[in-house]
Design goal:
about 190 residues; Arc Repressor Mutant, subunit A; about 80% helix
């Protein structure tokens, strides 16, 4: 009989193994058996904890979203004024931990999965709504009623520039993408203050 408290540990091990397996073989090429083997557990145990590959993928995406939220919270806690708080959100989106090869593969798989999978669509929608809400909240002291459209634009720029930085064929580093985004935000804030 497993020790008490092993379930959260095993679930985490399976999630980490899923991220690595997706990176190595692609979402369609990976099976629950591959993930279980990588995590050092039986396929039956993987199915016991998650039921299906789609459920494991949803758990993996929730994990990535939680990790992103923690990164953003840490950066927001260190920021003082509203402009610095906006920049903290931008920095979290382009933080090094968001750009390990395995994590970028998992995020890209998540976006693709959201086209066909309702749970992934829901998670992606929650992420995008939270991102916009957080940006809107931090932008309101800077631009008042203009916060909502500016937050939507920044969120779209984050996703587009993240994609540019995540795909090596586009030859854009996360630092370069962040610089482009900061220039965009500064330009929009300057226009809004006129």
């Amino acid at each position: 009989m497993p020790k008490l408290g092993m379930q959260p540990i095993r679930r985490r091990e399976l999630i980490v193994a899923a991220v690595e397996a997706i990176h190595e073989r692609g979402l369609n090429g990976v099976t629950m058996g591959d993930i279980a083997k990588r995590a050092g557990v039986s396929p039956a145990l993987a199915h016991h904890y998650f039921g299906s590959k789609d459920e494991l993928l949803s758990a993996t995406m929730r994990h990535l979203l939680t990790e992103f939220a923690l990164t953003a919270r840490r950066r927001l806690a260190a920021a003082g004024d509203p402009r610095s708080r906006v920049d903290a959100i931008l920095q979290a989106s382009f933080a090094p931990e968001q750009f390990s090869p395995a994590v970028t593969s998992a995020w890209l798989a998540f976006y693709m999965q959201s086209i066909h999978d309702q749970a992934a669509t829901r998670l992606l929608s929650i992420y995008l709504k939270r991102l916009e809400a957080n940006l809107r909240h931090e932008l309101r002291p800077l631009v008042g009623d203009g916060a909502a459209p500016l937050a939507r634009g920044i969120a779209a720029m984050i996703d587009g520039l993240w994609l540019h930085a995540a795909l090596p064929t586009l030859h854009r580093s996360p630092d370069e993408a962040l610089g482009i985004l900061r220039d965009y935000v500064d330009g929009r804030l300057a226009v809004a203050r006129r």
